[in-house]
Amino acid sequence: MINKKSRIYVAGHGGLVGAAIVRRLKKEGYDNLIVRTHEEMDLTHQGSVEGFLEEDRPDYVFLAAAKVGGILANASYPADFIYQNLLMESNIIHAAYVYGVKKLLFLGSSCIYPKHCPQPMKEEHLLSGYLEASNEPYAVAKIAGIKMCQAYNRQYGTRFISLMPTNLYGPGDNFDLETSHVLPALVRKFHEAKVNGNSSVEIWGTGKPRREFLHVDDLADACLFLMNHYEATEIINVGVGKDLSIRDLAEMIAGIIRFDGDLIFDTTKPDGTPLKMLDVSKLTALGWQAKISLEQGIRRTCQYYTSIAS
Ligand code: GFB
Fold first, then answer.
1. With a threshold of 0.90, does the pTM exceed it?
2. Continuous segment of H or E residues that includes residue 263
3. Is 305 domain-assigned?
4. Which of 138, 152, 169, 230 is flagged as catalytic?
5. Structural domains counted in the chain
6. In a domain, 128, yes or no
7. pLDDT in tens, 236-293
8. Angle of helix 46-56 versus helix 78-98 axis, rounded to 10
């Protein structure tokens, strides 16, 4: 188990995942946390990252820093997604080796699996088929991060573990309608439609794709659990083991927000991967399960959004 006095660096502490990991660590009594804002340290700058790790010498690193976004953001900024994610992960993983970090946890994504992957997607399906085009640059960067952790483990005996989370949501999410993921986008759209008395809400695509959603506080709990209990170099999926269609998600959010107008499906927008549910049997076998139901999680996210929108 990580000693409560260990020096723990959370890269990306200001983002959806990083902030949840900080909350979870503080709740557990880990009070020797190290965080740096983007202004204090540019993670795409190797010299700054090496200087920081040489000076602060963290014992553990949660690598939650990434350039992330929904289907449209990935289609619009492919160069940013591959460049920034490759640089940030490479700088931190290499410096973690050079400056003797005891253990590092790397966060990948479920989009690393093939577009037409057998469902539910198992860890061994990685690189068994073509990727979904809409987020291939991001997926390739994340796969490179996995392979870098595994290569350093093999060559230098490092303890760099890699988690593959399913689609995430929760407090601190990005609610920008162009760059966000579907769940926060729909929470905002239904909230605004209700407040403005609109008669309909636009949903991108056909509504047919299915997605699995994990609340970010559950993910943070899984990160701490695996940092303490997982030592293998193989990747491990983190999810809830069930999915629903985008249409059903929209109807669920509309019901919670009590919006009773129409759903308009804009099929000029991309659907992306048709299915991407994770097989979480490896994680379940280790003794971890998600606790926050989708309905509970959406209610909390709606409360959070209402608190920041007003
Ligand atoms: O969440 P999302 O943007 O990303 O889209 P992915 C999921 C599905 O929701 C797609 C539909 O079929 C979208 O067309 N959708 C419907 C919407 N309405 C909306 C809306 O208003 N906003 C958004 N954003 N989607 C992401 C990858 O794929 O998965 C990321 O792009 C990352 O890189 C993430 O891997 C986990 O789930 O398709």
1. yes
2. strand 262-266
3. no
4. 138
5. 1
6. yes
7. 999 999 999 999 999 999 999 999 999 999 999 999 999 999 999 999 999 999 999 9
8. 30
